[in-house]
Design goal:
The protein is of the alpha+beta class and 206 residues long. Helices cover 35% and strands 20% of the residues. It is built from 5 helices and 5 strands. The chain has a 5-stranded mixed β-sheet with strand order 1-2-3-5-4. Helix 1 crosses helix 2. The longest helix has 24 residues. The N terminus is likely disordered.
Amino acid sequence: MGKSTVLLVIAMKQFLFVLMLVCTLGVAQELQETLDRLPATSGLPDLFTFNDGTKVEDLDDWQRRRQELIAPLWYYQYGRMPGPPDQVTARLDERKQHESGLGTETWLTLTIGSQRRLEMRIVIYQPRTKGPHPVIIEEEGSLGGSKHAWMFLKKNYMFVEYARHDLDPDKDGVVGPAQAAYPQHDWATLAVWAWGGQRVVDYLET
C-alpha cells in the first residue's frame, strides 16, 4: 500500500467518524448539557430526515436540515467563533529564496483587527512563474519546517503556512490570545485555528 493510499484511508476514516458524530447529534431534539445525555443510535441516521421525522424534499428543506446538523457541532465541539475583523494587515519580517530554487518564501506577521490587534505569523512560498497561482493553506505548529513546499512550488502552487499556536497554544489551563481577545465567544481550539486560516484568506484577498 503506497503512502498516498494510506493517507486516503486515514482521511476516509476521519470523515466517517465526523459523519457519525454529526448524525448522532442531529437526532437530538434538544441540545443536552453533556454528550452522555444524547440518545443512542444504531448505524447512521438518514441525513435527509428532519429531527421531527419529516423528509427533506428540496434545496430549501436541505438548508434548514443543514442548520439542524450544524447547531449541535457548534454547541458541543467547536463553540461559536467571531466574525471577520475590520482589517488584516501585514508586517514583512523576511524574504528570501527557497532552498529548492523554485521560488521565494516570504515571512510575515499578520495583525488581525484594528482594535484587538491579534498577531499571527505566516510564511508564503511563491513560485517563480507568473501568476495567478492556486493556493494551499496549512496550519503549522512551527513555521518553515514543511518538507512539502518544494512540491507545491514545482507544480506552480502558492503554499502558505500559518502559526496556529500564535492564536491558541492548545495547552491545558491556558487561555489563548484569540479567546482572550473575544471572551464573549465560547470557541474552542479547533475553531480558533480555523478562524486563523480564514484570516490568511482575508490577507491574500487584499
